[in-house]
């Protein structure tokens, strides 16, 4: 399992000048009441994709907005990874 610590992900500290954003989808639905939330999600997911160089990444379908944002991010930035939505099952941890 890859579990980087804060220092590995943010060598200059957690305040980044560069953010990754998908503005149109991020401003809708729950994003409207959580400004900046999906910018943080997009930035950390992009960092992890760049570090791990995965072929596939799996995201729960329960957070459909986040799944749509990640798919758009990968498409727009030509990140060579397949994003797969999976059903979210309550109370079940799958490792």
Q: In brief, what are we looking at here?
A:
The protein is of the alpha+beta class and 95 residues long. The protein has a domain at 21-86. It is built from 4 helices and 2 strands, in the order H-H-H-E-H-E.
What are the main properties of this structure?
95 residues, 4 helices, 2 strands, alpha+beta
- Which percent range fits the helix content? 25-40%
Estimated share of beta-strand residues? 5-15%
Which class best fits the helix and strand makeup? Answer: alpha+beta
Radius of gyration: 14 Å
| Low-pLDDT residue intervals, each spanning 5 or more residues | none
What is the succession of H and E elements? HHHEHE
Number of strands: 2
> For the largest beta sheet, what order do the strands appear in spatially?
1-2
Shape: globular
**Count of helix runs:** 4
Distance between the termini: 10 Å
Main sheet makeup: 2 strands, parallel
**How confident overall, as mean pLDDT?**
89
Characterize the structure shown.
The protein is of the alpha+beta class. The protein has helices at residues 6-9, 23-26, 37-52, 64-76; strands at residues 56-60, 82-86. The protein has a domain at 21-86. 39% of the residues lie in helices and 11% in strands. The chain has a two-stranded parallel ribbon. Strand 1, helix 4 (64-76) and strand 2 (82-86) form a beta-alpha-beta unit. It starts with 5 loop residues before the first helix and ends in a 9-residue tail after the last strand.
């Amino acid at each position: 399992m890859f579990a980087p610590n804060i220092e590995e992900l943010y060598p200059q500290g957690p305040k980044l000048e560069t953010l990754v954003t998908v503005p149109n989808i991020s401003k809708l639905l729950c994003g409207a009441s959580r400004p900046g939330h999906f910018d943080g999600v997009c930035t950390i997911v992009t960092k992890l994709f760049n570090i791990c160089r995965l072929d596939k990444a799996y995201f729960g379908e329960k957070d459909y907005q986040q799944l749509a944002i990640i798919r758009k991010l990968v498409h727009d930035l030509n990140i060579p990874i397949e994003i797969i939505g999976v059903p979210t099952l309550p109370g079940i941890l799958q490792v």
